[in-house]
Amino acid sequence: MAEAAAPTGQARPGPAKQGPDAPPGHGRRRAAFGFVFVTVAIDMLSVGIFVPVLPRLVADFMGGDEVAAASMYGLFGTAFALMQFAFSPVQGALSDRFGRRPVILISNLGVGLDYVVMALAPSIWWLLAGRVISGIASASIATAFAYIADVTEPEKRAARFGMLGAAFGLGFVLGPAIGGLAGSVDPRLPFWIAAGLSLLNACYGYFVLPESLPPEKRAPLSLARANPLGALVLLRSQPQLLGLAGVWFVSQLAHFVLPTIGVLYLTFRYGWDERTIGFTMAAVGLAAVIVQGGLIGPGVRLVGERAALIGGFAAGMVGLSIQGLAPEGWMFWLGIPFTSLWGFANAAGNSLMSRRLGPSEQGRLQGANACLMGIAGLIGPGLFSQVYALALASPGTFPGPGAPFFLAVALILVAMLMAVRASR
């Protein structure tokens, strides 16, 4: 059919804008989401891939002194968390000013080159410097969430955020497994694998990742926006946003119970070996992938974001209660499906927060959320490990070694009560 003529006096519309700054169409949105999903998965895979070998490398550099190695390894974890806290809002603000595409691509490139440095590190201080740089570069996860908020309708954001949560789980499941196998060949091989994956993803993204934030919707860059305190001030701009931020922080704090004392608890209470614990952790990650990748989308469409938020917290409380009480190992496994449903709360809460700000603030919002996660990461391990130590120092008293799980249950209850109020 011939094209209709433009009305008299009106210019005929020109061709659609092309190039990396063009708004992504439907097909490009799919490719872009796939790239962002892979980016988050690779970031998490790269974190998990050297978990089996990094302590060994640190111990080797420290001359086999286990006490000194443990202290130094703790410094590695603290340094990474501090870099995430400090630079997540910086990258979020940069993405609000210059667009998501350059920040994500440069971050991928930086992570890849950093793992090359770590693979070649001739001393413990080079290795620590690499860990610091990886904490800075991988802070782009906040920008990845902002990208998804840009290209996704508000009512579908919870599902997409859930998919990114599945990428986290997938990376944590596959990372240690790949790292263990590669590390058995050479303790530096996992770093080369992580570097190769990140650099290949950067090259791929250069060709498939369109910009999601048009120039007219970008915000000016300022020191007030690009620092942790400035990012957190954003959360005070609306009472509901501040309330949901409090919910997010308390929930993230509770999440640190299993990573902090999981291995110690499973070994002490059930006498499990490394193989059984590894299978259990893989099951936890797999359940999270199933829930966040397949169930959150239809679940939120069915019940709505507010019900998903509150219901997710209720499921998390049930699951952690089962795990804290379970006298036998098979009973601990019964709690895994419930704790995986906790993922509904995080995806729905993030979606509700994103609805309250415009496109030019999404990067700053996700940077602020990452700051809260960083603070939780600094507090959580010390809190839960101390509670566990106190519980073991008082044998025969309730709640026994499950005390950290019940502390997490109490935190989730606080988060749920806050969510009821904040999500009205």
Automatic annotation (TrEMBL):
Keywords from the named record: Membrane, Transmembrane, Transmembrane helix, Transport
UniProt-listed InterPro entries: MFS, MFS_dom, MFS_trans_sf, Tet-R_TetA/multi-R_MdtG-like
Native species: Rhodoplanes tepidamans
Name listed for the protein in its UniProt record: TCR/Tet family MFS transporter
Gene3D superfamilies per UniProt: MFS general substrate transporter like domains
Major facilitator superfamily (MFS) profile domain ranges (all copies): 32-424
Localization of this protein: Membrane
Region (Disordered), start-end ranges: 1-24
TM region positions: 32-55, 67-90, 102-126, 132-149, 161-183, 189-209, 241-265, 277-295, 307-324, 330-349, 370-391, 403-420
SUPFAM superfamilies reported in the protein's UniProt record: MFS general substrate transporter
